[in-house]
Amino acid sequence: MALSAFSDKTKQPQDTDLSATLGSTFPLWKQLEKNISERFAPVTVEWGCSSKKTGWGLRFKQPKQAILYLIPCKGYFWASFALGEKAVKTAHTSGLPLSVLEVIDAAPKYAEGRGVRLEVRSAQDVATIEQLAAIKMKK
Question: Is residue 96 within 8 Å of 135, Cβ to Cβ?
Fold first, then answer.
């Protein structure tokens, strides 16, 4: 089963698909999409499906750096980051919830940073994702 609720590489998700799949979290998706695009402009937002294992995800990218990825699931979505060690240290002094810091600390390390993935189910989760994006992008 794919990480994303959408695994058919031939069919990019549309807002109607997202709304039906995300349910009550669809407005949170749209809010995060709007806020990230505005705050870190210029931002390219594009769908990608790298494999059947991961499925479709929405990438937010500045010209030289990916900001975050959103991955739709049934009733919620994931926000995924690659956080460098400087961002990890800053996160620990930023007032983020302990549960978020634990996820960051346990995240696998890659060349581009720690692969952090957080569930988004509430407005507080959106605020946390926006805070982490700001830490990552140093804005």
Answer: no
Amino acid 4 reads S
Predicted confidence at residue 2, as pLDDT, reads 76
User: Alpha-carbon distance 66 to 76, whole Å?
Assistant: 22
Structure-token match 């705050």, residue found: 39
Segments of the chain assigned E as strands: 44-49, 56-62, 65-73, 76-83, 109-110, 113-120
Please give the Cα distance from 32 to 123 (Å, whole number): 10
Exposed/middle/buried for 130, CB within 10 Å: 0-12, 13-18, 19+? middle
Task: Check if the beta carbon of residue 19 is closer than 8 Å to that of residue 26.
Answer: yes
What are the φ/ψ torsions at residue 122 (nearest 5 degrees)?
A: -145, 170
**Span 109-137, pLDDT tens digits:** 999 999 999 999 999 999 999 999 999 99
Q: What is the dihedral of CA 30, 36, 38, 43, to 10 degrees?
A: -110
Confidence of residue 53 (pLDDT cuts 50, 70, 90): confident
In the numeric block, which tokens belong to residue 23? Answer: 């349910």
Per-residue pLDDT, averaged over 3-11, amounts to 93
